Amino acid sequence: MPVRIGDSQNRKEFLGTALRAGVARVTITPPIGIPMIGFAGRGPASGVHDDLTATALVLEGPPAHPQGTSQTTGVSRLAIIACDLLFLRDKEVRATREAASRIADVPADHIAIACSHTHYGPLTEPDRGEQDPLVEAAYLANLVHVLAGAVAMARASAVPCRLGFGAGEARIGINRRERAAEGQIVLGQNPGGPIDPRVAVLRVDRADGQPLAAVLNYACHPVSLGSKCTDISADFVGTARRLVEEQTGAMSLFLQGAAGNINPLLMGWDWTHLARLGLPLGAEAIRTYWSSTPNTETTDGGIGVARSRLLLPPLLPASIEEGRTAVDLLAMQKERLGTEGDAGARWWAALRLERARKGLEALQGGVPVPPVEAELMALRLGHALGVVAAPGEIFTEIGQSIVARSPFQHTLFAGYANGTIGYVPTRAAYEEGGYEVTHACQVAPAAGEQIEEESVSLLRRVHDTAPTDPIPLASTTER
Fold first, then answer.
1. How far is the C-alpha of 434 from the C-alpha of 429, rounded, in Å?
2. To which H or E segment does residue 306 belong?
3. How confident is the model at residue 75 (pLDDT cuts 50, 70, 90)?
């Protein structure tokens, strides 16, 4: 069994009603000229279509306690930061947590940092080696303090509140694993493939009934502008969020779901896509918001956090022979591409060749490929509401299974959170191949099942037996 990290409680005296919440927003738009991320080899940002933002929600209340026991004194506090970014590395996640903990009095291990996964934002991996990393490094160094400041502002504005939940459906996404005529899996449209149409909304009202925050949870890649767009944008996510705010008066956070194999129905550098996708999503979120009614029953039960780190097995060739074949083929492909032509194709060829060589070396008794570290987090928001966060691009089937198996009446699944580990396909997808497996995956076929089982375990832990006394911090344990 993995060692859990966290479940610690802030022991300051809690005064007032059972639950308090605060929300705040900061702008995180990068400078024009910064390298972009989301499509390899695209180059620098040439303009800003709409600002990127980060929104922090802080919740504080009595700590959750084991079922059948009396409520103890004290207060637990947690924060969710929703960012318009592709992802954040573990380095920036740790630094943000430490900074926010210092200035906002929120325990570092009680802070979840989720990214919308917009493909029209800044490079957040300065060591990627494509261009001069100084601009990206400076942006990220500043971003840490900007995000921490958002938590501090939200914490300072906390007021008594009530929670509500609602769920609807929007079908702006489509499974992207299309089977071509030759039989291989390509990035396209697969109308018969699984998607997750659920639009989940966590509604946060002030105690007097006035709107405070709306957390929108949906699963779809923000890639509606295609691979050529070089303007900064939050994509359809920003459009949906703004509509929700205009029509409800609540500040909106977007939590990207398990969107690893889901693309929008519309793709291409056409600015109407933002409205054609974002407005239907936002409208359904608004309908869902107004159909949900915050109440004390949903809010009661305390709040809590449970975390763990998994050491996931790395993706390796099935055999030495297969590894040699892969290295030979990728080396020839890299040589064919040379130094001209598609920069994205050259980047992928180099990365895949490097990984193939390391995997082959490991199978031949050389340096082992290290496991992939993944942090999972479960949040309890009263007895009826749970949130689970996982890094990476989780396939939709995995996310839906976690939600279905959750012990909470209502559960949100947030992908692209607390770091990045690349794609996590289903076991069946490895046999089919495709971009998500051959290009952008670094974990073995068992990884998806391990993430699912541990996510459900954490949800059960924080739902049923969240302790009122701190558990000592631990490092990682391999499954």
1. 8
2. strand 303-312
3. low
Closest of 424, 365, 439, 347 to residue 392, by C-alpha: 424
Task: Report the interhelical angle of 90-104 vs 134-156 (nearest 10°).
Answer: 40
Q: What is the pLDDT of residues 186-207, one digit of tens each?
A: 999 999 999 999 999 999 999 9
One-character DSSP codes across 260-285: TTEEES--SS-THHHHHHHHHHHHHH
Is residue 257 situated within a structural domain? yes
Which residue range is the domain that position 340 belongs to? 320-363
pLDDT tens digit string along 390-427? 999 999 999 999 999 999 999 999 999 999 999 999 99
Tell whether 392 and 464 lie within a shared domain: yes
Do 31 and 140 reside in the same domain of the chain?
yes
**Comparing C-alpha atoms, which of 453, 437, 459 is closest to residue 385?**
459
Name the nearest CA neighbour of 55 among 222, 162, 202, 272: 202
Shared domain for 328 and 471, answered yes or no, is no
When pLDDT is cut at 50, 70 and 90, the band that residue 300 belongs to is: low
96 vs 101, 103, 129, 223, CA distance in Å? 8, 11, 24, 27
Same domain, 355 and 288: no
Same domain assignment for residues 333 and 473 = no
Q: At what angle do helices 447-464 and 396-405 cross, to 10 degrees?
A: 30
Query: How many structural domains compose the chain?
Result: 2
- pLDDT bin (cut points 50, 70, 90) of residue 459 is very high
Q: What is the pLDDT of residue 131?
A: 63
pLDDT at 10 exceeding the cut of 70: no
- Structural element, H or E, at residue 56: strand 53-61
The per-type count for the chain, helices as H runs and strands as E runs, is 11, 24
Q: Is residue 368 part of a domain?
A: no
Dihedral sign (CA 381, 383, 385, 388): positive
Same domain membership, residue 249 and residue 353:
no
Pairing mode, strands 36-37 and 121-122: antiparallel
What pTM was estimated for this model as a whole? Answer: 0.90
